[in-house]
Amino acid sequence: MTRRPLGFRPPGVTLLEQGTPGTGAFALISGMVKVIRRDRGDRQRLLAFRGPGEVLGEMALQYGGERLADVRTMSRCRVVWISAGDFHHLVKQHDLAYSLAVVASSRLREQTEMYDGAIHQRLAMALLRLVDISEGVCSFSLTREELAQHIGAGRNSVTKGLRALGPDKVRVEKGRIIVSSVEGLKRALADAGP
């Protein structure tokens, strides 16, 4: 089995490119990435964030097609490349098909939930997920536009939602979103009710 450690990759590097063949997958050892889908007009939509322990690019290997999205580093990342052949061998040898289906289902649920609730609640949910997958990091190289893409809202709505959450919970600086209070975001989400 051949796995190639790629060492560390700086922020802003495209690890996987939409439309390219699925020749392998990455295991994300450390760091954070964002998953971005481009439409035919080259408009972008930030679909998801991924953190340590996640596999990136496995969908193209499972159905044998092209990559559905770009994957870009948000922070310094360490990844390991797993070739398509090795990936299929691992899935078969360790009976991972069900586990991969659970991951796919979980990701679909995550995407669906991101569109439920008021804007400030969706922002709280997205930011809490970021803190969770980043293992406690509370400052992210992320714009309001990217948050808007992620939760399916307009940039102005996100600005109002961030204002509604308040600087005691989240602050915005040039190109950065900073979570001031994880507990405050949890309370904002809990106050929303079921």
UniProtKB/TrEMBL annotation:
Q: Domain named HTH crp-type: which ranges?
A: 117-183
Q: Name one GO cellular component term.
A: cytosol
Q: Which UniProt keywords apply?
A: DNA-binding, Transcription, Transcription regulation
Key word Cell membrane present: no
Q: Which residues form the Cyclic nucleotide-binding domain?
A: 1-91
Q: Which domain of life is it from?
A: Bacteria
Q: Identify the InterPro entries for this entry.
A: cNMP-bd_dom, cNMP-bd_dom_sf, Env_Response_Regulators, HTH_CRP, RmlC-like_jellyroll, WH-like_DNA-bd_sf, WH_DNA-bd_sf
Q: Which Pfam families match?
A: cNMP_binding, HTH_Crp_2
| Molecular function GO labels | DNA binding; DNA-binding transcription factor activity
Q: Which Gene3D superfamilies match?
A: Jelly Rolls, Winged helix-like DNA-binding domain superfamily/Winged helix DNA-binding domain
Q: What's the protein called, per UniProt? A: Crp/Fnr family transcriptional regulator
